[in-house]
Amino acid sequence: MAGTATANDPRNVLRWFIQYLVQRKLCTLEGLRRVALFQGGLDTRIGQLAAIRGYLDARDIVRILMEQADSDLAFGELCVRHGLMTPAQRDDLLRLQKDQFLLFCACMEWAGTLDPDALGRIRREFLDHLAASTERPRPPSGGFPAVEAQPRSAASVRDVLRKVREVAALPEMVQRTLAVLDGADADLDVAARVIEADPVMATQMLRIGNSALFALRGRVTNVRKAVLMLGARGTRQVVLSTAAAGAFAKVGGDCGRRLWTHSILAGRWAAALARARALSEPEDAAVAGIVHEFGTVVLHQYFQGEMAAVERAQARGTSEREAELEAFGLTHAEVGAFLCQQWTFPARVVESVLHHHALPAKLRALNRLDPLAKVVNAACRLADLDPDRFPHEWIALLGEEFVAYHGLTADLLDQLAPDVRRQAEELTSILG
What is the pLDDT of residue 287? Predict the structure, then answer.
């Protein structure tokens, strides 16, 4: 009958494998539950699987997104063409996409249920057992077609990225300022002159420079003094925060206001956590927090029909990620990271934007993750919490796995929250 699972169907093999694990007490039910939860939240697009396998890092993923804006080739093909993956690695990922049994085995390793050596031995024993049985389905002998699964065609992903690239340029003054501030040889005097030429930016620089946000010594009376006292990274933070305020305002309505309030809080939480973790350059954390929703902003501005469809799908119970993949072939996090790369933001900021919604299990499974991305991921969740609740209530709402992964405690949140809230309110009053 059409649609009936055959003996060689990997779904049948997977069912037998789970039964095999349980009957021989090779894995606990709790361990299997963790694997199921991990696999249920797993993004099985080839770039995401490649990151977990360790074939790609965030910069590689965004580099290929940049290439996709000008190519009809699938993601995996572009990776091979640019030497980021071998054909064998690409084919390994394509098999994971098609074969639920192989994917489940990989998820057992990634979720930490079994170590790779034990898993390899158990898998070999199971397949030998399966091959010797006349009553159980045999594992597929010829494998499955290596066809890259994509929610939408490479051409449609290209069209989305190309339009984003064309319409979402930073204001010229912001681009010039960032270019001057980029690198170890940042020229603060030139940056000050560029900012002085823009009355709005100059005013905001003075207002923020004289606020308690940076706690500068003495009153700041001119832009040059503000820039010199803030330094390159502090000045970059102010310039981008001001530009972000204008971008969020263009979305308009409750949506724009909600995104802006969330982003300000995320920026302050990210900076506070970065300092608490003694990370270098907490200003980068603040910038990543402020800009992490830029992908959402751009999609709302220039793809209104598609975003309306995303919202309708979410109202029906579809996850945000699934709805965005159906509409765009991309998530707003990927669009945001694409923009940050286009604007030549620091690589750690790009990575933080890319992973800001990732679950702890996914972050833990990644072979390479900048500590800043971990901080920003936590900050984005903290920014959504009800400020009227107590820190111990926040801990309960965040969940045991999230709290353990990020090393959060009620005492830490209680210590950081007052300054975070005060700084966010002050920044909102200045930037609008």
Answer: 92
Q: Name which of 85, 72, 426 is nearest 268 in CA terms.
A: 426
Which residues neighbour 6 within 8 Å (Cβ) at sequence distance 6 or greater?
Answer: 12, 137
The CB density around residue 133, as the number of other CB atoms within 10 Å, is 11
Distance CA 382, CA 424 (A): 13
pLDDT, tens digit, 9 for 90 and up, residues 217-250: 778 889 999 898 888 888 998 898 888 888 888 8
8 A C-beta contact, residue 109 and residue 116: yes
Please count the other Cβ atoms lying within 10 Å of the Cβ belonging to residue 89.
18
Q: How many angstroms separate the CA atoms of 332 and 354, rounded?
A: 9
Q: Which of 197, 192, 206 is nearest to 172 (CA)?
A: 197
Q: Which residues contact 245 (CB under 8 A, 6 or more apart)?
A: 260, 431, 432
Cβ(360)–Cβ(81) under 8 Å? Answer: no
pTM beyond 0.70: the answer is yes
Whole-number Cα distances in Å, 9 to 5, 78, 146, 355: 6, 30, 16, 34
**Options 3.40.47.10, 1.20.120.80, 1.10.3210.10, 3.40.50.720; which CATH number does 166-170+247-431 get?**
1.10.3210.10
Q: How far apart are CA 242 and CA 178, in angstroms?
A: 13
Tokens representing 253? 């309505």
Do 140 and 8 contact (CB within 8 A), yes or no?
Answer: yes
Angle of helix 29-40 versus helix 10-23 axis, rounded to 10:
150
